[in-house]
Design goal:
This protein is mainly beta. It folds into two domains: 238 residues, Immunoglobulin-like (Sandwich), CATH 2.60.40.10; 125 residues, L,D-transpeptidase catalytic domain-like (Beta Barrel).
């Protein structure tokens, strides 16, 4: 049964996850051999899904939901379809699998020990269909799995909860809702799980992402679910700050916002971490010094912060969100630019993120530099190493 999905996006371009998979004529159109390595979905059975063992190389912020016509969600909820096999004619395009978060439906706050339901809606934003675990057709199965850390056991997912629409198939995976046998490109699909709230007041954050069973994560469609049980002792301001800093699945009450802030940079991995004590608040991909102009190693302190710094020497690089940590001028900053080249140098710097190409500074993406600039204070330590 074909469904036409009409959406109104209210916050600009919605983020999508892209997973490109090479063709293999010996299995089925547009799917990789590894996905179907002795595991062909040709039987009408359900097995415990295995999340991909290869983790994404970069952790990303959870995406925002988009506004959607309620009729589209009702259509997804009431879908009862025949098991229709086959693949669309892609006209020579490479097969791609994309997922977009539409919305997460749940109550805002629960009583202690309350049984509750969470319903997640995703859009198939690629050019290949997804199939239900109940389908006899060959094709990919897209589940939702736990992230931060990947494949961890959820605090809430429980496949033993005896609810007809509980889609939890393990402590770390959720299957497509029953009745939705096939999800064609442009269609919306739902995932449901039941859980029981904590036995005392808490705020718990869980991270999830869609993934292709026996395939890979659709990491840019990662999303978070905040579950409020009762009323905690934190003030509204304290809770907001904790939620801003929590970047892993955990009880938010355990986040210590008044611990020691620090910055760590790994030159081998081209990664930067912002920390409070041992808790990683954020992980960013960066661009550090090239071989001829390396970023210095050691432990330093941030001693100067400028909203925008312009280099004294020609060609006078413009460096937003500058944070200096050596007297020779090395610092953290957003992608540099030149005021005279129409953005060419900035674009080149963007292309070099993840590669050691700077003159000794640690370059960051603009939104990452914004967060780091607001997070740190003068005097915070920075540890740089290979």
């Amino acid at each position: 049964m074909k469904k036409t999905v009409s959406m109104l996006v209210v916050f600009g371009l919605a983020l999508s996850a892209v997973l490109y998979l090479p063709d293999n004529s010996n299995t089925l159109p547009g799917t990789p051999t590894v996905m179907y390595n002795s595991v062909l979905h040709s039987q009408n059975t359900i097995r415990v899904a295995q999340a991909p063992s290869v983790k994404p190389s970069v952790k990303v912020a959870a995406v925002a939901e988009v506004e959607v016509d309620e009729a589209d969600l009702v259509e997804a909820d009431n879908a009862v379809e025949e098991d229709v096999c086959g693949f669309p004619d892609r006209g020579g395009e490479e097969a791609s699998y994309k997922a977009q978060l539409i919305t997460v439906r749940k109550k805002f706050r629960y009583a202690t020990d309350e049984m509750f339901r969470v319903k997640v809606y995703l859009k198939n934003d690629g050019n290949m269909p997804w199939f239900s675990p109940d389908s006899d057709c060959l094709g990919v199965r897209v589940n939702i799995g736990t992230t931060h850390d990947y494949g961890r056991e959820s605090h809430f997912l429980d496949p033993s909860i005896a609810k007809e629409d509980n889609g939890a198939i393990s402590k770390s995976s959720i299957r497509m809702d029953k009745g939705q046998m096939r999800v064609d490109p442009g269609e919306i699909v739902s995932y449901t799980f039941w859980a029981e709230s904590d036995d005392e007041p808490s705020v718990y954050r869980e991270y999830f992402s869609p993934y292709i069973e026996d395939g890979g994560w659709m990491e840019e469609a990662e999303f978070k679910v905040d579950l409020y049980t009762g009323v905690t002792r934190d003030s509204a301001a304290e809770l907001r700050k904790k939620l801003l800093y929590v970047n892993q699945s955990m009880n938010v009450d355990d986040m210590k916002i008044n611990g020691e802030r620090s910055v760590e940079v790994d030159l081998s991995e081209q990664r930067l971490w912002l920390k409070i004590d041992d808790h990683i608040v954020r992980e960013f991909i960066v661009s550090t010094g090239a071989a001829a102009t390396p970023t210095p190693t050691g432990t330093f302190k941030l001693f100067l912060k400028n909203e925008v710094r312009v280099g004294h020497a020609w060609p006078h690089y413009v460096m937003p969100r500058f944070q200096m940590f050596t007297s020779q001028g090395a610092g953290l900053h957003a992608l540099p630019s030149l005021s005279t080249d129409g953005g060419t140098f900035w674009s080149e710097a963007l292309d070099h993120i993840g590669q050691p190409m700077s003159h000794g500074c640690v370059r960051m993406l603009p939104e990452d530099a914004d967060f780091a600039f607001a997070f740190t204070e003068v005097g915070d330590p920075i540890y740089i190493h290979y």
